[in-house]
Amino acid sequence: MNNKFIQRLCLANSVGMFLVLLMGALVTKTESGRGCGDDWPLCNGKFVPAYTIDSMIEYSHRFVTGIVGLIVLAAFIVVLRRSKRMDAKIHASGVLFFTIVQAALGAMAVMWPQSSMVMALHFGISLLAFAFTVLLYFAIREEFGAEKANPSAVRPGPSVWNPGNVAVTKGFRKLVWFTLIYCYFVVYLGAYIRHTESSGGCTGWPLCNGEVIPELSGATGIVFMHRVGAILLFLVIALLARASAKSDLPKRIKLSGKWSLYLVTLQVFSGAFVTLAFGSDWYLLASLLHTVIISCLFSILSYLGFIVLPAGTTKRAA
């Protein structure tokens, strides 16, 4: 098993989890979650279900999740056996853990009724699993890419904790982690809108039902809260991008801050697209685009949060 194979396995891990994330959103948006009835892992009591749109969407999601689960398990075993980096092992463990939790929540959602608040967690768990696959891929690429260029760069021995190992102020580190946690909260609000079927609570954009502050009740209150949260997220990320543009910070921090600002801007406009497309044939495409952008944004913020973690006295392995 060569280094290139390990890197490709971790890349497949990340791509596969992204597909699971996207297909889960498709199941929710098309209301296909009951396409296989109350059966799990079978679909309406069959290994190969009868062809209906709902059953095929739901069963395809289950099938892809099963395949990706095997890739996740393989990556976990390989990383634990071959990697010398503690952070890579933590990332691999995080992927496996959240994949199991995601599968368990999905099974419970099929077999037993759950509240909208619990259902909204499904997307958040999938997002965490995807973010960990991205972190794992970058850690493995750095470790084995360095090893290929310089075989003595990563020596055998105890696993090392190897985050970004960059010098940043405590204030900047707190800002990064506040942004990451707050972003997750805004994502949860968005998922909650889907599972409470509140998407039509605000018509028009940027105003909500033609008002700056609408009546804050029911679906309108939920959607308006998400809009306010999204605006505040844009402002926080703009502040983060400005702080990360300082000349004394590494290039990857500057790029992460810059791309975070680009993506949150796109997310705002994709949210407008979702609102304006509601009830039309474009609504599904707009919703999936919204999901793709927020997944990329959260992953970049997760990467930024990780690389600003203090490394203590441990030297970089590579």
UniProtKB/TrEMBL annotation:
Q: Which residues cross the membrane?
A: 9-27, 59-80, 92-112, 118-140, 175-193, 224-241, 261-278, 284-309
Q: Which keywords describe this protein according to UniProt?
A: Cell membrane, Disulfide bond, Heme biosynthesis, Iron, Membrane, Metal-binding, Oxidoreductase, Transmembrane, Transmembrane helix
Q: Does the keyword Phosphoprotein apply?
A: no
According to UniProt, this protein's pathway is: Porphyrin-containing compound metabolism
Magnesium is among the record's keywords: no
Per the UniProt entry, what are the Gene Ontology biological process annotations, in alphabetical order? Answer: heme A biosynthetic process
Q: Name one GO molecular function term.
A: metal ion binding
Q: According to the lineage, what is the superkingdom? A: Bacteria
Q: Which GO terms describe its cellular component?
A: membrane
Localization of this protein: Membrane
Membrane topology listed for this record: Multi-pass membrane protein
The record ties this protein, via InterPro entries, to: COX15/CtaA_fam, COX15/CtaA_HemeA_synthase
Q: What is this protein called?
A: Heme A synthase
Lineage summary: Bacteria, Bacillati, Bacillota, Bacilli, Bacillales
